[in-house]
Design a protein that fits this description.
disordered N terminus; alpha+beta; Arc Repressor Mutant, subunit A
């Protein structure tokens, strides 16, 4: 009886595994299908989209570039209920490759594709496959493989091909390898075990020049908010100091610009005081102060 019980348990587990596998495959198919549709409608299918993904995301949402010192955090999409506006947070501590791939993943959420799907799938799995298919379209990858692949399929040549595709598409190395496996363009299991850190070392071993895509662009910027602040300043609702304070956290560089404008404004006033040949200006200034008091 004990043996039969174990067999039943094993059968149940097998059914769960099969259902889980089917769910994963379905999420992949849906992610792939929507990526093809989005490419056709928003980008075209004849070129790798690379960094242009961020420009497209910004057409439909506000991007917040923020340096977050957490190696496991890449990005997120938030929708505010008051105006239904979407905000995409991208961690600029990550490499440019990962930032662009994250933007592609978040584009799934910006387009609210989840709401179009009635099936029970893992939405994050589907979004990952969507991002991969968006940045690495099947037709382009296959065409590129044909043009790069030599008759000699040595492991070293495969690594060079992965690096070339990664650089041309601006995609993470690991994402490229996973894509090649998905498309059954490689059966080299060793490639799938390599990390992004391993790939940067392999570049050096193969004497391939370093890529800026392997470095982060550590910026803190919130363009949408910057534009609102600029309008407030233009409408005289904020002065330079107030504008500088509001942008100090989200856009330090822009905050510094307003601080410099304020400093220039003060310097101009001081020059006028020093260059005034009579005391009329000072008298008017002190009279204004007395009146305010």
């Amino acid at each position: 009886m004990k043996f039969i019980t174990q067999m039943k348990s094993s059968t149940k587990e097998s059914k769960v595994d099969v259902m889980s596998s089917q769910k994963v495959n379905h999420a992949d198919r849906i992610g792939e299908a929507f990526a093809l549709q989005v490419l056709s409608e928003h980008f075209g299918t004849e070129t790798f989209i690379g960094s242009s993904i961020e420009l497209k995301v910004e057409e439909l949402a506000s991007i917040v570039y923020k340096e977050i010192r957490d190696p496991d955090f890449f990005g997120a999409t938030i929708t505010l209920k008051r105006d239904n506006r979407k905000y995409v947070l991208l961690n600029t501590s990550q490499t440019l490759r990962h930032r662009y791939f994250t933007a592609a993943h978040e584009f799934w959420h910006v387009l609210n594709i989840n709401s179009m799907i009635k099936d029970d799938i893992d939405p994050e799995r589907a979004a990952d496959r969507f991002a991969a298919a968006l940045m690495l379209p099947e037709s382009l990858v296959r065409s590129l493989i044909r043009s790069l692949q030599e008759d000699d399929k040595k492991e070293q040549e495969e690594k060079k091909i992965v690096i070339r595709i990664s650089d041309i598409s601006s995609a993470p190395y690991v994402a490229v390898v996973k894509r090649l496996v998905e498309l059954k363009l490689t059966d080299n299991k060793g490639l799938a075990e390599l990390s992004d850190k391993d790939w940067t070392e392999i570049r050096r071993e193969l004497n391939i020049v370093e890529s800026p895509l392997d470095q982060p662009q550590r910026i803190n910027r919130f363009t949408d908010y910057e534009e609102r602040i600029a309008q407030e300043v233009q409408d005289d609702n904020l002065n330079f100091i107030e504008a500088s304070k509001r942008l100090a956290t989200v856009s330090p560089e822009k905050s510094a610009e307003y601080a410099q404008l304020r400093a220039a404004e003060v310097e101009k006033v001081m020059d006028e005081i020093e260059n005034d040949e009579d005391d009329d200006f000072l008298d008017a200034l002190f009279e204004t102060r007395r009146t305010k008091k």
